[in-house]
Design brief:
The chain contains 17 helices and no strands. The chain has 396 residues and is mostly helical.
Length: 396
């Protein structure tokens, strides 16, 4: 019950985030230098988690996690209300940046609450799969609802709805009573802040399987993120798909992610999560390679469905691996380090995508994405077959 409520809150959060993204895209695109503002909006969504997330992460391993979440989500609610009344682009971007800084804390914090929300001894993959499934529903519902709500209510009210979702999620977490208390540590024995920051990356390096999983996933994301830019050109110029078909192609990825999070990932025991990460990388690479080499609308639906399914396997597996291998008192910093590395790869891949699409074309870009993903995954398969990953103590 507590896990389902937490997962539902995660789905509401995803839907609310997409409401804001659609609304702000509409606001900024119509302004002078709208393209620059949209690009800044995307960067502001990623940069704080890359540069500030690890620096703030010691808070997650020093304070009770649900308290951190309630406070940060309440603050994001206030920021969201201010954003709804912001008019000038600099103020809009400033508020988005502030929200992203807070998100660099509440995103890993939410992941830390999953094991305590489960029954003792339960497979963490089941919890993370449920979180991913509800998030996929939010991603599916959010864009469609955003378009309708913007037309009916206007942009300001849509942004206020998103702000209200943060207050709702904070209330749910406060009422659920899920607690994650880091191990007590004497203040005089606590190392300096920067030494605490370094604990996150160090914890990921201590286990060969964990280190391999983290590096292989980040390297794969560098290539899979090319799809973000290439997909629209691929659909409209290579497939010559009408707008309705393009919209369906965008949605089918979320459907694939939902299917894998519901039907596949929860059935995989903890010892198979490294193998699941490897399988997800292989499936992602093969699907993208097929999309690039044999473009057709039917294959595009199948390929993008598999891309979404592979993404779910990878996402759920890496969270389960970290929780299973990293000490409880270091998990917050470990999660922040993983998120920072993955978002840095996303930024680099997205930056490379536009010139690559211009030089090679969208189909070739997807083929390169697939080949690169396979190249990042295949060398790691030997280590990912290991079943000796677990070792973290029970959640308190």
């Amino acid at each position: 019950m507590r896990l389902t409520a937490l997962a539902a809150a995660n789905g509401v959060s995803a839907a609310g985030e997409t409401l804001t993204v659609v609304a702000l895209m509409l606001v900024l695109q119509g302004r002078p230098d709208g393209s620059f503002a949209v690009a800044a909006l995307v960067l502001l969504g990623l940069l704080p988690s890359v540069f500030l997330g690890p620096m703030l992460a010691p808070l997650l391993d020093r304070l009770e996690t649900s308290v951190v979440l309630v406070v940060t989500l309440a603050f994001r609610c206030v920021v969201g209300v201010a954003l709804a009344f912001a008019v000038d682009v600099p103020w809009i971007l400033l508020l988005v940046g502030i929200g992203s800084v807070v998100s660099a804390i509440d995103s890993p914090a939410l992941m830390l609450l999953v094991p305590p929300a489960q029954k003792p001894g339960a497979n963490p993959a089941v919890g993370y799969a449920r979180m991913d499934a509800f998030r996929s529903v939010g991603v599916l519902v959010g864009p469609a609802a955003a378009g309708l709500l913007v037309d009916v209510l206007g942009i300001r009210l849509v942004l206020l709805v998103d702000a209200a979702t943060y207050g709702l999620i904070a209330s749910v977490i406060a009422v659920l009573g899920v607690r994650r208390r880091p191990p007590a540590q004497k203040a005089q024995a606590r190392p300096s802040w920067f030494r605490q920051v370094r604990v996150g990356p160090a914890a990921l390096r201590q286990n060969r399987t964990v280190a391999t999983a983290v590096i292989a996933l980040a390297a794969a994301i560098l290539f899979t993120s090319l799809i973000t830019v290439a997909e629209v050109d691929y659909a409209t110029t290579v497939l010559q798909a009408p707008a309705a078909v393009y919209g369906a192609l965008v949605s089918v990825r979320a459907v694939g992610r939902l299917a894998a999070a519901t039907l596949v990932a929860p059935r995989l025991p903890a010892r198979l999560q490294p193998a699941a990460l490897g399988a997800g990388g292989l499936l992602m690479g093969i699907a993208l390679l097929a999309l690039g080499l044999a473009p057709s609308i039917p294959l595009a639906f199948v390929g993008l469905f598999l891309v979404g399914a592979a993404n779910a396997l990878q996402s759920i597996a890496i969270r389960s691996i970290v929780v299973g291998a990293v000490e409880t008192g270091e998990q917050g910093r470990a999660f922040a380090a993983v998120i920072a590395l993955n978002n840095a790869s996303t930024m680099a891949g997205t930056a490379a995508a536009a010139p690559l699409v211009a030089l090679a074309g969208p189909a070739a870009t997807l083929a390169i994405a697939g080949a690169g993903t396979l190249a990042a995954t295949v060398p790691a398969l030997g280590a990912l077959r290991s079943r000796t990953v677990t070792g973290a103590p029970e959640q308190s």
